[in-house]
Design a protein that fits this description.
The chain has 11 helices and 10 strands. It is of the alpha/beta class and 285 residues long. The protein has 3 domains: 81 residues, Orthogonal Bundle (Arc Repressor Mutant, subunit A); 88 residues, 3-Layer(aba) Sandwich (D-Maltodextrin-Binding Protein, domain 2); 101 residues, D-Maltodextrin-Binding Protein, domain 2. α1 crosses α4 and α2 packs across α3. The chain starts with 7 loop residues before the first helix and ends with a helix. 33% of the residues are buried.
Length: 285
């Protein structure tokens, strides 16, 4: 039940906006991610929260009660937190989705100072553009590029792992495993081309490995759900796979190469106000 609380902001946004599309725009999330949150909340509670009326989603009687209670709960929480500190301008942070959701958010909440945070999950190139154009104070990205406007600081090494359905039995020998994967569909997601190329380059020195096309999703949550359902294999950040293991039980074959990806903090040249936030990634959970 406590796990369901993470989906409450998406639910309240859909109730207020009247639909997934408008709610996604408000939350700076994809429509698929908001739909996923609603599905998981309904599954966790075991009740139906919406009915469709034309193009709008309207809450059921149970959904209306939850919306009232949820809104009150968030207001009480905000008041309790806000009463203990001065009101300040939020720090605007842009982060690539997987790292932002499963590493940056948790560590910033635990180790950063008490200043409010506004964390948006975006594609890598959008992160760089927002920081460059001062739409974000700083960001986290997986590619450091030569730039006169931006400074890149290595802050975290995330492991990339092969995940397969629980009932798959992978060959142990490397060449046989490569053939095994080449014959089965790959479940991909936004920007997975980079992750797949890096993993196959480390595993088989073949960054252009040809994958059998399978499902494609915007978010890692849907990707892992598809793998758990037997739709194919994928290669994802290990932090996300571990965080979602209870919800989407996938298997991480033991005999696979250790492949790591360097994540960088990025900020505008000469703007050193945010250096203290990097401590959150040196601290251990």
């Amino acid at each position: 039940m406590r796990y369901a609380l993470r989906f409450l902001p998406s639910f309240l946004a859909v109730v207020d906006a009247g639909g997934v599309r408008a709610a996604a725009a408000r939350l700076h999330k994809t429509q698929a991610a908001v739909s996923y949150d609603l599905q998981q909340l309904q599954a966790a509670l075991g009740v139906r929260l919406f009915v469709r009326s034309g193009r709008e989603l309207r809450p059921t009687a149970t959904g209306e009660r939850l919306a009232r209670a949820g809104g009150d709960w968030l207001a009480v929480l905000e008041a309790a937190v806000g009463s203990g500190r001065e009101e300040t301008t939020p720090v605007r942070i842009a982060a690539v989705s997987g790292f932002g959701r499963y590493v940056a958010h948790r560590r910033l909440m635990r180790h950063a100072d008490g200043r409010p945070l506004r964390l948006h999950y975006l594609l890598n190139d959008v992160v760089l553009a927002q920081v460059r154009d001062a739409q974000a104070d700083f960001g986290f990205c997986f590619s450091a590029r030569p730039s006169r406007a931006l400074t890149f600081v290595p802050v975290y090494r995330e492991r990339l792992v092969l995940v397969v359905p629980p009932d798959w039995r992978m060959p142990r020998e490397a060449l046989a495993r490569r053939r095994f994967l080449a014959e089965r569909p790959a479940v991909t997601y936004d920007e997975s081309d980079y992750v797949f190329a890096r993993w196959f380059d480390a595993a088989y020195r073949d960054p252009r490995h040809r994958c059998v096309p399978g499902d494609h999703y915007a978010e890692l949550e849907e990707t892992l759900a598809a793998v758990a359902a037997g739709r194919g294999y994928s290669i994802v950040p290990g932090d996300a796979a571990q965080a979602l293991a209870r919800l989407h039980p996938v298997r991480i074959p033991a005999s696979q190469p250790r492949v790591e990806n360097q994540v960088h903090a990025v900020h505008r040249v000469g703007d050193d106000r945010w250096n203290g936030y990097w401590r959150a990634f040196a601290a251990r959970d």
